[in-house]
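To whoever picks this up:

The parser on our side crashed when reading a file containing two proteins. I've narrowed it down to the boundary between the first structure block and the second sequence. Both blocks are reproduced below exactly, byte for byte. First block:
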Amino acid sequence: GYNQSLLVSQFWGNALAIPVADLLRRQHATPPQQGLTAAERRRNMKNAFHLANPDRIRGKHLALVDDVLTTGTTANAAAAILLRAGATRVDVWCLARTPAPGQ
């Protein structure tokens, strides 16, 4: 129920005077990514998200906010959905970047 990325998005949206929309939803609960290998993370994120309102995506340049970016698996899975829905570009903004597991 706690969405850190949405809180960061709202802060940046207010500071930069840009609209914020909470469009991605988890289709099913997934185990935490922490401690998983890159391959396990990709399997964990397969079909994990769906769009709440796909009509708002077509033709848009979007910023996807991720609180912590490690391997990029979650961001890549989410960006792929947005691009398939017709976004023209998806940039990833993250609050923190950590080393990938094993590095």
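<<boundary where parser fails>>
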Amino acid sequence: MSPAPRKILHVDMDAFYASVEQRDDPSLRGRPVVVAWRGARSVVCAASYEARVFGVRSAMPAVRAERLCPEAVFVPPDFMRYKAVSRRVREIFARHTDLIEPLSLDEAYLDVTTTKTDLPSATATAEAIRDAIRDELQLTASAGIAPNKFLAKIASDWRKPDGQFVIRPHQVDAFLLPLPVGRLPGVGKVMEAKLAELGIATVGELRAHGQRELEQRFGRWGRRLHELSHGLDDHPVQPERPSLQVSAEDTFEHDLPLDALEPHIRRLADKTWAGYRREPGRLARTVVLKLKTSDFRILTRSLTPARPPASAEELADVACRLRSRVELPARTRYRLVGVGLGGLVAADVDDAQAPLFASGGGGAA
């Protein structure tokens, strides 16, 4: 006998950052709100539904959002406040299940195959969660209910905002086959164009091509496409794991040469160190320097020293030295820099492995 299908929820807060701003400032309600810093380098973090009517979307350059919606109210993001609200949302989730996989501050997967409550169904559980979010936090969320994660994520978008949609196991084909292939996770504009060259526009047409042909054309990704076209996704909900890296980064108003980055690296090292101190009982072994060039090329350089940094100053010193491992021409300009501490492990694990690192050294990535 095959195992009973899972019951998976994907809960997605509606225009989360913008909705928090509108909740906390009544003068913003009903107005097009764009959460972003103003300026040529800024991007939109979130847009209220009133702003979305004008075509404003997350990750859009802020200057374009301003052109699309001149009446928009720009609000600088307050991530500490959003994180605090997100924690309260997750407390509501935890009343129903311990199997919670956060994807970001505003969305998560929940496995509610078995729950802590006596609610009769996954649909009822989703309703109870959304009701609690509305009553306790004065915010709205949308939910998708399905036998697996990828279908639940598609379903949560189906009746946004403030709605929910269920795909039962016997309804998978009827729901999935007419969908455009662009609705499948991982199928972006480039892959959509490649599939269009094969005459594939819908999930049903994708399924008709068969696994062997898709694998021959797209390798392992072809096999995954075949699985998705059949509604298959065996990935379990993975509860949140401890952070493996703490980092901070910044985008400059004007591109800078490599030798002008030191003050920014030291400032970001201070921020990273402050975040690291909020990880009690965990030790970081690797220093990471991240750079983005003016043409959007991303580089990382890392070093695992014999002794982990003991202060923000030591972290900054190592990060600054990592610039010597950047082998691009001196004329190269950089639009972003980041400093991170990676390889976080429990302190007792690090103590046990200390002999492995006693000889020092490190690597660059």
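After patching the parser it read the second block fine. DSSP finds 14 helices and 14 strands in the chain. The first strand starts at residue 8 and ends at 13.
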